[in-house]
Write a structure and sequence with these properties.
Elements lengths: L7 H15 L3 E2 H8 L3 H13 L3 E4 L14 E4 L5 E7 L4 E7 L4 E7 L9 H14 L8 E8 L2 E3 L2 E4 L11 H8 L3 E5 H13 L6 E7 L3 E7 L2 E3 L30 H4 L1 H12 L6 H9 L3 H25 L3 E5 L1 H5 L3 H8 L9 E4 L6 H15 L12
Helix pairs in contact: 1-2, 1-3, 2-3, 6-13, 8-10, 9-10, 10-12
The structure holds zinc ion.
Organism: Enterococcus diestrammenae
Family: Belongs to the ROK (NagC/XylR) family.
Pfam families: ROK (PF00480)
Length: 389
């Protein structure tokens, strides 16, 4: 959600549009009161927004019960354009085509294919071509593409991917040349946090952290509507905090990193080895846990022990109001998160709300939609509100 400096006219336009988005149906007079912009400026901005199909008038001239005329209400036309978001995992690519407001049009998954620097572009390109051949016609068409990468991203550049080799790859430029729209490349955990902020939280939370647990463990932070990614893009790389001095080696170059003990990948691999299974995922693991398998229970409780240390560490470093845990294991075994909560006894962690993600596996896709939409609308702290369930 990095947006170039806007001039005053653009800032005012963003302020008015944000008021319309966050207040659903609102009149010109109320926008003027809310934004402290004079009525003439508000009217001019709204005229432009209507001409560009971004805002629509509703309820024109309806008679109220008092006999007068209801003021014309305005609302955001979420269907005025399309965005595309991708989650690029180490062995899958998921694409989502949606309207600007997050209403999903299509979802496509390419599973069980190891992703590398040779096949990533053709895979993404073929999904985009599929989507666009059947996409609905909108006034603005496709306005942006976002890619969630499970690794370190600095200013749209992939600098390090520990579990697949995309390091140094430029995917932004070739996609921009092919499709002539802005392309955003961002860390998956960061996009999870953007998605949660934009679609799932209310205005009360100013600082949220989303903890993303898959092959690695990453945390994304949104403070006052802005993504905090650090000086080199690795802010929130919680998986590489040290859990055991001189412990297991990690691709980052260190030893004893948290994600070598507490990631879902490690949990599944350890369980597969113990049970002599070829493949384990969260469904298989949760089924074993719920059936009372002693190995699954022991590994799950060990995971709770390790993760509660990680959560404690990020809370004391970041002091968030809300911490969202996004893990398929913790979603499918609901009694694990309360166990983490009970382990966190420090006075610093008591006032923090900890909950599982409702966006689940699609959180980075919703984050990507939020990122591309906020760029198109030039609204930095975009909050589109709760998704229709
Ligand atoms: Zn590491």
């Amino acid at each position: 959600m990095i947006i170039n400096k806007l001039d005053i006219r653009e800032q005012n336009e963003a302020t008015v549009l944000k008021a319309i988005i966050e207040n659903k149906n609102i009149s010109r007079a109320n926008i003027s009161t809310l934004t402290k912009l004079n009525k003439a400026s508000v009217s001019q901005i709204i005229k432009n927004l209507i001409e560009n199909d971004i805002v629509e008038e509703v309820g024109i001239g309806d008679a109220s019960s008092m006999g007068g005329r209801k003021p014309i209400q305005l609302h955001f036309n979420g269907r005025c354009g399309l965005v595309l978001a991708f989650d690029v995992g180490y062995n899958y690519v998921t694409g989502m085509l949606a309207y600007l407001d997050g209403e999903v049009i299509r979802l496509e998954e390419r599973k069980n294919t190891p992703i590398n620097s040779e096949n990533i572009l053709p895979t993404v390109q073929s999904i985009i071509t599929n989507f666009l051949s059947q996409a609905p016609v909108t006034p603005h068409g496709l306005v942006g593409i976002s890619l969630a990468i499970h690794g370190i991203i600095n200013d749209n550049r992939i600098t390090f991917t520990p579990y697949y080799d995309l390091s140094g790859l430029d995917i932004k430029e070739p996609l921009e040349q092919l499709f002539s729209v802005p392309v955003f490349v961002e860390n998956e955990a960061n996009l999870n946090a953007v998605g949660e902020y934009c679609f799932m939280t209310t205005g009360d939370y100013q600082k949220i952290i989303s903890l993303s647990i898959h092959s690695g463990i990453g945390a994304g932070t949104v403070a006052n509507g802005s993504l905090q990614s650090g000086s080199h893009g690795f802010s929130g790389e919680l998986g590489h905090s040290t859990l055991f001095p001189n412990g297991k080696s990690c691709p980052c170059g260190n030893k004893g990193c948290l994600e070598q003990y507490a990631s879902n990948r490690v949990l599944f691999d350890t369980f597969a080895k113990l049970k002599d299974l070829d493949f384990v995922n969260s469904d298989i693991f949760a089924a074993a846990y719920n059936a009372g398998d002693v190995d699954a229970i022991r590994l799950a409780l060990e995971n709770v022990d390790y993760l509660s240390i990680g959560l404690n560490n990020i809370i004391v470093a970041e002091d968030p109001e809300l911490l969202i845990v996004n893990s398929s294991v913790y979603r499918k075994i609901p009694d694990l998160l309360p166990r983490i909560r009970r382990k966190m006894v420090s006075r610093f962690t008591q006032s923090i709300t900890i909950q599982t993600s409702l966006l689940g596996d699609h959180a980075p896709l919703y984050g990507g939609i939020a990122q591309a939409t906020s760029h198109f609308l030039k609204i930095q702290n975009l909050r589109l509100g709760m998704l229709k369930k």
